[in-house]
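Quick one, tokens below:
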């Protein structure tokens, strides 16, 4: 079994990396919009979507980035959302020549709080989420999707998130737990000053999954980064504020 991916368009390479429990289909509208000017590669990460039966030797951001790099022919603009942001950061850290530019959407260098990191969810919340996943799988995933919405956002975004999550069957529990472990253990803060590729940090101002302070930290610690806060947006601004998102994204990519 190998990584499932799709490619669209012609031009400079772009790769779109999805978040936890989702798959590449969540990027459909973005991929369509970019394919007029770029060759867009959209993978399903191991254990997700149509790669559900493919699990790597280790489920870490470094290994996931290696698997994605295998399906690319050369340097690409890496766009990573949420957990996909970890994967994109790992690629830029481990193999800078493979990353022409970096776009981090709803991303963070560290998902759980610690004494020196307030811009995250408490560890107990993530651990309780993992426990709830074992006890009531469907309700737990539904709550996670609801948290991605900011108050007042179009409920159609929630329907889209839900429809995509289950489009290829239920996400395998083993991959979900591995993903939660990755979120619990990853800490990329120390690596940020060494990642010099041009970077766009895009973040919803009302993100309830990743506090906006994490985006501000990314933008100040990455040497060549700019920050774009999306007003009134939650965790998935590329869905809830798609036109605004694409405008800022294309300006950065063509610039």
């Amino acid at each position: 079994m190998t990584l499932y991916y799709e490619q669209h368009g012609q031009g400079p390479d772009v790769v779109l990396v999805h978040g936890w429990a989702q798959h590449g289909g969540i990027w459909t509208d973005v991929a369509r919009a970019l394919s007029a000017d770029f060759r867009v590669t959209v993978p399903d990460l191991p254990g997700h979507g149509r790669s559900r039966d493919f699990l790597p030797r280790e489920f870490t951001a470094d290994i996931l980035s290696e698997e994605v790099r295998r399906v690319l022919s050369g340097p690409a603009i890496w766009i990573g959302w949420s957990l996909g942001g970890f994967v994109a950061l790992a690629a830029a850290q481990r193999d800078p020549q493979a990353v022409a530019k970096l776009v981090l959407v709803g991303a963070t260098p560290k998902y759980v709080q610690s004494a020196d990191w307030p811009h995250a969810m408490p560890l107990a919340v993530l651990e309780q989420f993992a426990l709830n996943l074992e006890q009531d799988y469907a309700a737990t995933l539904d709550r996670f999707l609801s948290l991605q919405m900011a108050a007042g956002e179009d409920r159609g975004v929630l329907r889209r998130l839900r429809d995509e999550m289950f489009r290829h069957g239920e996400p395998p529990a083993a991959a979900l737990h591995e993903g939660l472990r990755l979120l619990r253990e990853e800490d990329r803060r120390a690596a940020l000053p060494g990642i010099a590729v041009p970077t766009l940090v895009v973040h919803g101002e009302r993100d309830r999954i990743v506090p906006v302070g994490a985006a501000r930290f990314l933008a100040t610690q990455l040497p060549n980064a700019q920050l774009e806060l999306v007003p009134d947006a939650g965790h998935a601004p590329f869905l809830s504020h798609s036109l605004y998102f694409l405008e800022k994204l294309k300006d950065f990519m063509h610039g």
